[in-house]
C-alpha cells in the first residue's frame, strides 16, 4: 500500500470517518459511494478516453486496500466492486459506442449507481438454472424476472439484467424508471451492512434493441468475467481492513497485562498474531497475483476461484482470532470484531459461494 495512494485520498478518508454509520442504511450506502466517486476512486484501470486514471489492476488493488484500511467499511468495498465489475467494465468491454457515451460518464462520476442482476431465488450461481426470460416481439424485448440478493439494487439507477432469450443467456441494460421495474426493499443482512442488497422484479418490462448489451447469447461470458473479477478484487479492500485489525490487536495485547506482565509473554497469544499476519500477507499475495495476471491480459478463472476460497476463509479465521484475543469486550453488540466475523461469514457466499469455487477448481483439475 503506497504512501502516494494514501496521500491522494486523505480528504476522502477524513470525510468517511467523520460520517456516522448510524441512521438509514440506504442513505448511508448512497452517501459513502458518492464520496468515493467524487474523489476519483472509481477511475482506476479505466482508460483516459473515459476520464480514467489509465493505471494498472495492481494500482486498483492498492487503492482499495488503502480505502479498507482507513475507512474500515467492507460493505462499501463490496458495493463499489459490484458497481465496477457488474456495470462499468461490461459496458466498456461489450457496449456499443452509443451505450458507452450514454452510460459511462455518470457511472464513473457517481451520479448513477449500478447493479448487476444475475442470482435468483432458485438458480443462485448457476446460469443453467436461470428462470428469467426475455421474449423478442416487434423489435423489442419483454423481460420477466425475479432477481435476489442483488448488491446496490435498492438504490441503483441502472441494472445489468441477465435473462434467457430462448436458451441463450443474454444481458440487458435496465433503467430505474422503465415500466415494469420494481426495486424491492433492502434485504436484512448482518454482513457487509453498508452494501445495500435487495430483490429486483421485472414484470413485462419492455426495452428496445439498443438496450441489449453485447450480442444475444454473450451473457454467460459476461457473467464469467464479472464473477471472476468481483470475487477476488473485493478482497483488496478486506486486506486493508485486516491490516488495521492486526495493528489494533497488536497494540491491545501489548498493553494487556496478567500478573504485571504483557500477555504477549504467552506463546499462544504470539502464535495467534503470527498466524493473522501470515493470513494477511497471503491474502494480499493472492489478490496481487490475480491483478498481475490481468495486467498481462491472462485468464484468472482458476486463480480467482482459488483466491476466493483462501481469502474468505482467512478473513473469517482472523476475525475469530481477533475476537479470542480481545476477549469479553469483543462481545459488545456494536463491537468491530462481532461485525468482522459476520462479514467473514458473508464473504464465503458473495460473488459465488466457496463451494461453487471448489467446483470450478475441481473442473480445472479434470475431476468433474
Structural description of this entry:
There is one protein chain. With 368 residues, this protein is of the alpha+beta class. It has 3 domains: 3-109, Acyl-CoA dehydrogenase/oxidase, N-terminal domain (Butyryl-Coa Dehydrogenase, subunit A, domain 1), CATH 1.10.540.10; 114-219, Beta Barrel (Butyryl-CoA Dehydrogenase, subunit A, domain 2), CATH 2.40.110.10; 222-364, Up-down Bundle (Butyryl-CoA Dehydrogenase, subunit A, domain 3). Helices cover 52% and strands 17% of the residues. It has helices spanning 3-8, 10-18, 25-38, 57-71, 74-94, 97-109, 219-255, 267-295, 301-326, 336-347, 354-364; strands at 114-117, 133-137, 140-151, 158-165, 168-175, 181-186, 197-208, 212-213, 257-258, 261-262. It has a 4-stranded mixed sheet, with helices on one face. A hairpin with a 2-residue loop joins strand 9 and strand 10. Helix 4 (57-71) packs across helix 7, helix 5 (74-94) runs antiparallel to helix 7 and helix 7 (219-255) runs parallel beside helix 9. It is globular and about 80 Å long. 46% of the residues are buried. The mean pLDDT is 90.
Amino acid at each position: 500500500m503506497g504512501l502516494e495512494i494514501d496521500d491522494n485520498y486523505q480528504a476522502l478518508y477524513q470525510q468517511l470517518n467523520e460520517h456516522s454509520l448510524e441512521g438509514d442504511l440506504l442513505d448511508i450506502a448512497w452517501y459513502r459511494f458518492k464520496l468515493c466517486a467524487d474523489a476519483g476512486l472509481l477511475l482506476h484501470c479505466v482508460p483516459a478516453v473515459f476520464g480514467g486514471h489509465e493505471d494498472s489492476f495492481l494500482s486498483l488493488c492498492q487503492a482499495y486496500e488503502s480505502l479498507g484500511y482507513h475507512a474500515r467499511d467492507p460493505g462499501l468495498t463490496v458495493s463499489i466492486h459490484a458497481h465496477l465489475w457488474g456495470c462499468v467494465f461490461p459496458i466498456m468491454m461489450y457496449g456499443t459506442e452509443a451505450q458507452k457515451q450514454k452510460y459511462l460518464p455518470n457511472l464513473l462520476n457517481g451520479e448513477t449507481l449500478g447493479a448487476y442482476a444475475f442470482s435468483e431465488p432458485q438458480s443462485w450461481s448457476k446460469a443453467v438454472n436461470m428462470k428469467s426470460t426475455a421474449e423478442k416481439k416487434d423489435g423489442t424485448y419483454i423481460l420477466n424476472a425475479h432477481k435476489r440478493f442483488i448488491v446496490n439494487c435498492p438504490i441503483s439507477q441502472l441494472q445489468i439484467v441477465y435473462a434467457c432469450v430462448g436458451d441463450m443467456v443474454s444481458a440487458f441494460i435496465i433503467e430505474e424508471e422503465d415500466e415494469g421495474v420494481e426495486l424491492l426493499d433492502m434485504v436484512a443482512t448482518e454482513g457487509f451492512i453498508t452494501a445495500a442488497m435487495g430483490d429486483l422484479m421485472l414484470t413485462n418490462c419492455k426495452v428496445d434493441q439498443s438496450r441489449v448489451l453485447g450480442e444475444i447469447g454473450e451473457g454467460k461470458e459476461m457473467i464469467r468475467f464479472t464473477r471472476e473479477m468481483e470475487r477476488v478484487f473485493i478482497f483488496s479492500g478486506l486486506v486493508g481492513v485486516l491490516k488495521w485489525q492486526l495493528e489494533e490487536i497488536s497494540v491491545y495485547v501489548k498493553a494487556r497485562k496478567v500478573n504485571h506482565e504483557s500477555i504477549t509473554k504467552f506463546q499462544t497469544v504470539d502464535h495467534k498474531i503470527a498466524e493473522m499476519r501470515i493470513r494477511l500477507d497471503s491474502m494480499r499475495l493472492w489478490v496481487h497475483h490475480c491483478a498481475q495476471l490481468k495486467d498481462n491480459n491472462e485468464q484468472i478463472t482458476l486463480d480467482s476461484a482459488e483466491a476466493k476460497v483462501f481469502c474468505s476463509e482467512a478473513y473469517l479465521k482472523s476475525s475469530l482470532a481477533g475476537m479470542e484475543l480481545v476477549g469479553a469486550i469483543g462481545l459488545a453488540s456494536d463491537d468491530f470484531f462481532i461485525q468482522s466475523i459476520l462479514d467473514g461469514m458473508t464473504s464465503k457466499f458473495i460473488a459465488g459461494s466457496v463451494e461453487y469455487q471448489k467446483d470450478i477448481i475441481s473442473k480445472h483439475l479434470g475431476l468433474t
